[in-house]
Write a structure and sequence with these properties.
With 98 residues, this protein is an alpha/beta fold. It contains two helices and five strands, in the order H-E-H-E-E-E-E. Helix 1 packs across helix 2. The protein starts with 7 loop residues before the first helix and ends with a strand.
Length: 98
């Protein structure tokens, strides 16, 4: 069973969001004890953003002071669904999976 596997569309939308703001020093933030699927989702996101923007983001368990954060969250909803919300300093990708 997969958890938090982000569809390709979510990765593309996330990459587009990064180009609209200055997220070159952003950090992908995971929970303190991430599951293997959460780690894989973060790794996939970083790899896809790197391919599209040449920006290599870090993955950490907490945001770096002064740096934008990209937060991956589990959410209730239909399997394979997701939402992306953003502010000037953070992006939250919430996804549901079966």
């Amino acid at each position: 069973m997969r958890k938090l596997k982000l569809p390709c569309l979510a990765v593309l939308l996330g990459a587009l969001s990064l180009q609209a703001a200055d997220f070159k020093q952003a950090v992908v933030v995971l929970p303190a004890s991430p599951t293997t699927p959460e780690k894989k989702a973060a790794q996939m996101l970083v790899e896809e953003i790197t391919k599209r923007t040449q920006a290599r983001l870090k993955i950490a368990s907490q945001a770096t002071p002064g740096a934008p954060g990209i937060y991956l969250r589990l959410a209730a909803g239909e399997p394979e669904s997701f939402t992306i919300t953003s502010t000037n300093n953070e992006i939250v990708v919430s996804g549901a999976d079966d």
